[in-house]
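Final report, closing paragraph on structural work. Over the funding period we assembled a curated collection of sequence-structure pairs, and we close with a single example.
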Amino acid sequence: MSSVSGDAARLAYPPARRDASVLDDYHGVQIPDPYRWLEDPDSEETKEFVARQAELAETVLAACPDRENLRREITRLFDHPRHAAPFRRGNKYFYCHNSGLQAQSVLYMQDDLDGEAEVLLDPNTLSKDGTVALSTFSISEDGTYIAYGLSESGSDWVIIHVMSITNKQPMPDKLSWVKFSSISWTHDGKGFFYGRYPAPREGQELDAGTETNINLNHQIYYHVMGTDQSEDILCWKDPEHPKYSFGASVTEDGKYIILGIYEGCDPVNKLYYCEIFSLPRGIEGFRDTQEMLPFVKLIDNFDAQYQVVANDGDEFTFLTNNNSPKNKLVRVNIKNPELWTDVLPEHEKDVLESADAVNNNQLLVCYMSNVKHILELRDHRTGNLIHQLPLDIGSVSEISCRREDKEVFIGFTSFLSPGIIYRCNLASTVPEMKIFREISVPGFDRTSLQVKQVFVPSKDGTKIPMFVMSKKDIKLDGSHPALLYGYGGFNISLTPSFSVSHVVLCKNMGFVVCEANIRGGGEYGEEWHKAGALAMKQNCFDDFAACAEFLISDGYTTSRQLCIEGGSNGGLLIAASINQRPDLFGCALAHVGVMDMLRFHKFTIGHAWTTDYGCSDKEEEFHWLIKYSPLHNVRRPWDQHSGSQYPATMLLTADHDDRVVPLHSLKLLAGHLSKTLQYVLCTSIEDTPQINPIIGRIDRKSGHGAGSPTQKLIDEAADSYSFMAKMLGATWTE
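Its predicted structure, as stored:
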């Protein structure tokens, strides 16, 4: 495989101390962990390592000729107004809007859809650098108050505040140590439910988001307006199962509290309920007792997923995957739970993604068919089809409605459509889909690009869907640089969506940009998910390699011009792929990846991922993990094949990523330096086999990705794609 012109040989790679004394015994197998010291983010040695890696990365990036071209053009195309779908509470409408380059979107309100909008909450006023984000919010039923969660520097930790909507005055309420929580008001407007953890370090100041402490003992509280957090009412905890997480929500009729209980990330949950009006002294009556709310256990196992769609009193409609891996709708009277009936049976080939009760007696259901969304209007009682709503090939990004609404707002996007919000009138005999707002990107000509969907046979013959975006009518002569993106995990589907940076790569650099829907995702339901999880995880890497080989054999690109990219679980995908097939790629971009598969469960919320990966504490699962764990499978490719080397690689992480903590990328970077770069480049060997650079981009005041300000998104794209372009030999054209 061709390589870059010796840039790595001129780099002064900082040394990474190997501590040979750290040795772990996994079921009789001795595994060294020489970079365990990098797990302490507060040590001076770790800080020095991070600083020197950041300095090295900037040296490399400063020499990338198209860094500023990419930054300028991505910024230009990013500068367009973006809207979210409106929703109604009380007598007002609310929606989020970004004028273009604002760091964070702003929450607006208006009396009617044609009326003048006014700012309700602008996160951009809360920090100079835009790193305070509005991560969640909920408006009381009568539209009087808003409870909103703010996160700083990309951390998952949230602080909930409350504001009066009428006069926009902040209330004294402040709730800390909130994480992975929704906010759900009781209909009387007295307070709301939320989830929190105990403070990581009691009595100590902490830069929340930089710690690695495991998140245990999630709890559900009810906060009464105007009281201190210390007086909040504990509604549910389960100290016997400290790794469980919980979600509490009030039904749309205000009658029930629904408690979801989760043991990990699998689409399964227990489901309990509590009838609010049956509590003799109300929720506040539990403040001075040692009792939790008297939840009734409707589903008390983790056999399947149950999501509330609607309820008519005691009769509930659920979306479930119980004996239906592509999902179905069922109905039950929760006071008589012996009899369950199917309302909408599982589809033969399409996945039922969501169902919303609308127009009193109708259901708006969204199916995924070969990674494209279909919308149908069905009868709530019978499940019978009423109408299929007209929709282009692409993704439903949001649905905004409540059961009493006769109109629905539907967000749509695709690879070539920045976004459309449809206003659908359900009162007419035939539903009317009209464009309410359409996002326009100045200077973007969608007719110059094309998107195809192909189906690639994997190693075992399974057909893997892949979208391919490029300039129109390109010649399949192997001359094009290509970017292949993947994820493949946690039942998460990659559906068509618009990306400014991907458009720029196609338009200005002639890239072919591809998205592979490999197993492990949810594109074809739970069977597709399980086929890329646990003992079957290798299927993900095989699927991804097959898609890469297709792009080469079909004449789109060559291995030296092919870059692969992924984030989080997708970062694991990239790192494992270059370990297994270093010959197949010219460049790799691994964002915030899970790299140490033997210890991931020990940090923050990592224990929740064992449902997809397994856990090294169990002998059988250890043997799954050790086979592909990126940190433990770094090799010297030239030992297997003369002239082979790792592709040019960038590992991207961030100091406030408390989802996949940065130690994963730091330890892998140190491992690469030890096994390849440092080992070779710091010796007297002049003709080094590994001349492709392996660098780490470590962002400051950033997290796992959510809440990143616009400028940081642009800067990261300019950095990673200018590195890619230089490594692949791609050139810029205006």
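The radius of gyration is 26 Å. The first helix runs from residue 44 to 62. We thank the funder for supporting this effort.
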